Amino acid sequence: MKRLAGKRILVTQADEYMGPDIIALFREEGADVIEDRTDLTQPGACEKVIADAGHIDVLIANLAASANLGVTCMGMPDDIWSEMFDVMVHPLHRLSRAVLPQMTERQKGKIIVVGSATGLKGIAGASAYSAARAAQIGYIRSASQEVASANVQINLIAQIWVENPAYFPPEFQATPEFKEMFKSVPMPRLATGREDALFALFLSSDESDFFVGQAIPFCGGWAQ
Amino acid sequence: MKRLAGKRILVTQADEYMGPDIIALFREEGADVIEDRTDLTQPGACEKVIADAGHIDVLIANLAASANLGVTCMGMPDDIWSEMFDVMVHPLHRLSRAVLPQMTERQKGKIIVVGSATGLKGIAGASAYSAARAAQIGYIRSASQEVASANVQINLIAQIWVENPAYFPPEFQATPEFKEMFKSVPMPRLATGREDALFALFLSSDESDFFVGQAIPFCGGWAQ
Amino acid sequence: MKRLAGKRILVTQADEYMGPDIIALFREEGADVIEDRTDLTQPGACEKVIADAGHIDVLIANLAASANLGVTCMGMPDDIWSEMFDVMVHPLHRLSRAVLPQMTERQKGKIIVVGSATGLKGIAGASAYSAARAAQIGYIRSASQEVASANVQINLIAQIWVENPAYFPPEFQATPEFKEMFKSVPMPRLATGREDALFALFLSSDESDFFVGQAIPFCGGWAQ
Amino acid sequence: MKRLAGKRILVTQADEYMGPDIIALFREEGADVIEDRTDLTQPGACEKVIADAGHIDVLIANLAASANLGVTCMGMPDDIWSEMFDVMVHPLHRLSRAVLPQMTERQKGKIIVVGSATGLKGIAGASAYSAARAAQIGYIRSASQEVASANVQINLIAQIWVENPAYFPPEFQATPEFKEMFKSVPMPRLATGREDALFALFLSSDESDFFVGQAIPFCGGWAQ
C-alpha cells in the first residue's frame, strides 16, 4: 500500500533545501529515489542528469539559491541577482525540456517544483529572490498547459516558513527581525520539513492527476 | 495504516454534490462518517446537526445549490438569488460557529468546504452562483485566521469540471455549449468524483496541518 | 476638458463610506450627480431608485455596512451576519439587474462597486464582512462577462486603509491594535478620500473601457 | 490642467511595444519625455541611460522581446529563452537600481513597468515569455515595498490583447488560431494603444500614489 511504490523519482540538489526531507519520506513510501548533487548551472549538466537517470516518473525540481534576505533592490549586486536565475530558473527550463519527452511519450509523468510563496507575494529585502521564484511560477503555468493533454502534470509548492537549516536557522529565529516578520503568519509555528514532504508526496502520487500548472501556497496562511 | 482511522467526520448533504464519493472513500480510509441529510436552511438546523453529532474531528461542509447555469444577471429572479446564499453561505457560517468551539477547545480539528472555482474566476451565466461561492471563500480566509493558533484549519476545495450527475450529466456533456466551454480547460477530461475525494482526504488528514484559509483550485488547470 | 462632462452618475448611500468624496470630485469633473439616500434593504427600493433616476451613465454602487471588526466567527450573531448581505450584496444584484438593461440597450455604461480588499485577503475578526465583500467580487467577475460585448463595464475598487470617519476614526488610529495591524501595510499612511475618488474617476471615465470584471486593490500595498 | 505638466519621463525602447503610444499621449499631457533607444542588454547601458537623463520623475520600463508564441517548452532553444530574461528582466533590475536613489532622495517618483498578463495566467506556447513576465511581477512586488515609505511607487501594467504591430499584426488576427484564442476574452475587441497609454497616464500621474507593487491586468477580462 506504499503510495509511491514502483515510481522512479529524481530529486535535484539532494542535500539542500527540501531534498533530505523529501528523499527520506519518499523512500518510506516505496519510491526508487535517484539523488542528484550535480552543479546544474554548468552547461549540459541538466541534460546529462536526465539522460543518466533513464526512466523518470517524477522529477522533483528542488532548486534553491541563498535567499540573501535583506539585500535591497538598490544595493543588489549583479552576481547575487544572476545567481538567482542561474540556480533556480534556467535549470528548471533545461530539466523540464530534457525530461518531458519521455513523460509525454509514456502519457504519464509529473514535475513538482519546490518553489516559494515569495513568488506570489512580495517581501521587502527579497526582490531578486522573488523575481526568480515568480519566474518559476510563470513558467509552470504555461508549460503545464502544453503537456496536460499527454497526462503529464507540472505543479509547484509555493512554500515559506518551513523549518530549514539554510533559510530559518535557530539563530535567525531568535532575532527581533524574524519575530516581527512572523507576526504576519496566522499559524503560530513553522512547518516541519516532513509536513512539507507530505505535500510533495500528495502532488507526486497518482492521487493528484487533476492539478495542472498550479502554484499552491504552503505557508501557514501567510499568502493564502 | 488507514489515513482517517479514529476520526469522526460529519458530511452534510450526504446524497448530493461530492457527498457520496467522499463518504465512500473516507470509510475505506477508516473514518467514522456521520451522514447528514437535514435541510440546513431551516432555523436551528445547523446547530442541531452539530449538537446531535457530538464529537466531530472534521466537518465536510458539502453545500450545493443548483448552479442554474445560463440565468443571466439581468434575468435572475429573487428566489434563485436567495437560494444560493440560503443553501451555500449562511449554513457555512452557522455550522462553523457551532462546531469550532469543540475543535478549538481540543486544540485540533478541521473544516473542509467543498466549494467552487467559480468563486475565484468568473463565468458568464453564473453570477449568483459565483457570488455565493466567493462568499464562502471570503469567509474561510478570515475565519481561518481566528482559529489557526488553536490548531484548527479551515480550507476550501475550489473545484469545477468534476464528474457529477447534478452539474455535468452526460446529456449536458454532449451539448455544443459544453464542448465550447470545455475548450478553456487544459486537461482533456473531467475529474472523477474519487479524484476529488482524494483531495478532500488529503485536506482532512493530519498531513495538511499547515494549510490555513486556502481556496485551492481543483479544476484541470481552468483557474490555476 | 472635464472628464465626466455630460455623464449622469448615480451614487448610492450618498452620505456614507466614499459617497461624499466621490460626489464632490465628480461634480468638479462635470458630472451630473444624483445622490441617493434610500434604504436599499427595503423591498422594491433598488428598482425604484433606478426607475426614478431615469438615464444613468454610471452607477456608483457605494454600499457599506458597519465592519463590526473584532466580532469573531464563533461569536457572530445572526443579525450582524445578515446585515452584511442585506446591505452590501443583495442590493448590488438588484441595482445591477435594474440598471443594466438601459446600459446594454445604449451599448454604453459602467458600474463601479466601492468594495473592499478584505474580499481578496482575509483578516481575523472580519469573517462576515469579508464574506459579503467577497460575494460582491464573485458577482462582478461573472456578471461583467455577460455585458462586456454590449460595451458595459463592471469593476470594483478593493479598498482598505482609506481615511474615513466610519472605518478609521482618529480614536481607532490611536489604538495599539490599529498600529499593530498597520505594520502590515507597506505605505506608511492612509489614503485620503480624494485619492480614492480619483481612482473611482478613472474607472468611471471613458478612459477605462477595457477593464472587465476586475477587483483592483487600492490598499497601499497591503493586498497587492 | 495638463496631467503630466512639469514631469520628466523616460521611456525605454521608444519605438517598440507601447513606446510610441505612450510618448504621444504623455507629450499631449505636458510631460517632458526622454525617448531612449539604447540596447539595454549591453553592459553598463542601463546605468548610462539613467545617468544621461539626469532628473527623472517617472520611468516607463517599456521592455519587450519577441513573444515567440508557439515555441513549446520542449522545443525552446537556449537563445530564445535567454533573450527573454536579457531583454525584459535584467534591465528592469538595473534600471530600477540606477534610478531609485534619486527618487527616494527626493521622496517622490514612480516606475511603471509595461508588462504582460501572461505573467499572471499561463498560456500554451509561451512558457519562456510567461516566465520572464512573471519575474517582472515578482520583482516589483518586493522592490516596491522597499521604497514605499519614501513615497516612490512601482507598479505594472499586466496587459494583453492590445493592438500592436509586433504582437497582434492584422495577418495574425485573421488566422483561425487567433480567433480560437480570442474566444476566451470577454471583451469583443482588442484595446487600442491609446487606451493602454491612458492607463499608463493614470499610473504615472499624481492621482495614483496609493498603489504599491501591483500588477494590474489590462486585458478585456481575460485574466480579471
Structure description:
- 4 copies of one chain form a homotetramer.
- By secondary structure, chain A is an alpha/beta fold.
- Chain A is 41% helix and 15% strand.
- In chain A, strands 2-1-3-4-5-6 form a 6-stranded parallel sheet, sandwiched between helices.
- In chain A, helix 3 (78-106) packs parallel to helix 4 (127-147).
- The longest helix of chain A is centred in the middle third of the chain and has 29 residues, at 78-106.
- The first copy, chain A, is globular.
- The two termini of chain A are 32 Å apart.
- In chain A, 60% of the residues are buried.
- The mean pLDDT of chain A is 96.
- Chains A and D meet through helix 3 and helix 4 of A and helix 3 and helix 4 of D.
Write down the overall mean pLDDT of chain A.
Answer: 96
- Helix-residue proportion of chain A: 40-55%
Order of strands across the main sheet of chain A = 2-1-3-4-5-6
Largest interface: A-D, 44 and 44 residues
* N-C termini distance of chain A: 32 Å
* Cα radius of gyration of chain A in angstroms: 17 Å
Apparent shape of chain A: globular
The largest pleated sheet of chain A is described as:
6 strands, parallel
Number of strands of chain A: 6
SSE class of chain A: alpha/beta
User: Approximately how much beta-strand content do the residues of chain A carry?
Assistant: 5-15%
**In terms of quaternary structure, what is this?**
homotetramer
* Poorly predicted tracts of residues of chain A: none
Q: Please provide the ordered H/E string of secondary-structure elements of chain A.
A: EHEHEHEHEHHHE
Total number of helical segments of chain A? 7
